[in-house]
Amino acid sequence: MRLRGLELLASAVVVLSTDGRVRWLNLAAEQLFELSAKVAVGAFFARLFVNGAAVDALVEDARANAFGLKRQEMLLERAGHEPLTLDIIATVLESPDDALLLEFRELDQRLRHDRESHIIDSAQANRELVRNLAHEIKNPLGGIRGAAQLLETELDSPGLREYTQVIIKEADRLQALVDRLLEPHRHPRAVADVNIHEVCERVRSVVLAEHPMGLRIERDYDASMPELRGDKAQLIQVVLNLVRNAAQALRGQGRIVLKTRVARQVTLAKQRHRLALELHVIDNGPGIPEAIRDRIFHPLVSGREGGSGLGLSLAQSFVQQHGGLIECESRPGRTDFRILLPLS
């Protein structure tokens, strides 16, 4: 069968014979249904599921030439596994041995793609807005500080000079804030081979030193993880921002998990990648407040008293400069920040 090119598809593809047996399936199908080709090939596909009658009906219709191409939604469940809500495209094949090609997409996956596009577009618009705003603020801010310094030299009263010191200190604080807003645009990236586990270990040691009592940072590393091309300093800052946020949400008392995995056939920024790094920062804290859950990567949005609201925005900017994306799922008792970075 000339189907090897279908291995490159993100969607799961299964080819059935005229009697409904599996003739071939791609890697995405093995991952989706959590079964190996050795188990699936030769088996009746419908019987792999507790509710496979709908698959049998498709095979019957294909055999009777009731359609050439058909699209429908279907719920399939394997024993002991979560049910999958799937969008299915069924194509009748002209081969004498192969009756039907089934292409499966999780409906949740389609929603994830829409959400990813929204995150990328929103982050880009926010970056442009913030960069323009920061440049507009920077010049008058320098003038305010300079005027306060000149005024201070003309004042004889120590009490009045206290007021000018307040102006100068507040101007310096705002200048530091503006510098952080402009940080992703200031320096060229120093790209080299990076071991993500070295990055995680550096961050782990720093945060544990900041919270020596009551905080656990557990490792769940994939030892087969290859190196990636990236700016090590930026990646350290990304992971540090996420882990520090988690530690602060836990108030130094709780559990954080650093988990790495290799993801296959991943689409990032509308580009297909054969392999990607998947890094999770998971904590068992109270979760992100629902009111800001959809805006946590926007600049100046913070769920913490006294927070600047820049840490997650900067982390997202740095990751997107690497061609990747940060996603978040949060509920009380579990918050999972997922960093995706292309490997190939």
Would you identify the CATH architecture of the largest domain?
2-Layer Sandwich
For this structure, the CATH topology of the largest domain is: Heat Shock Protein 90
- Count of DSSP helices? 8
Helix and strand succession? EEHHHEEEHHEHEEHEEHEE
| Total count of strands | 12
Strand arrangement within the widest β-sheet reads 2-1-5-4-3
Mean pLDDT: 83
Q: What profile does the largest beta sheet have?
A: 5 strands, antiparallel
Question: Structural class of the helix and strand makeup?
Answer: alpha+beta
Distance between the termini: 27 Å
Shape: elongated
Global Rg? 27 Å
Count of domain modules: 3
What CATH first level of the largest domain would be assigned? Alpha Beta
Helical proportion? 40-55%
Give the CATH H-level superfamily of the largest domain: Histidine kinase-like ATPase, C-terminal domain
What does this structure look like?
With 344 residues, the protein is an alpha+beta fold. It has eight helices and twelve strands. Strands 2-1-5-4-3 form a five-stranded antiparallel β-sheet. It has a five-stranded mixed β-sheet with strand order 7-9-10-12-11. It starts with 11 loop residues before the first strand and ends with a strand. It catalyses: ATP + protein L-histidine = ADP + protein N-phospho-L-histidine. This is histidine kinase. Its EC number is 2.7.13.3. Residues 132-344 form the Histidine kinase domain.
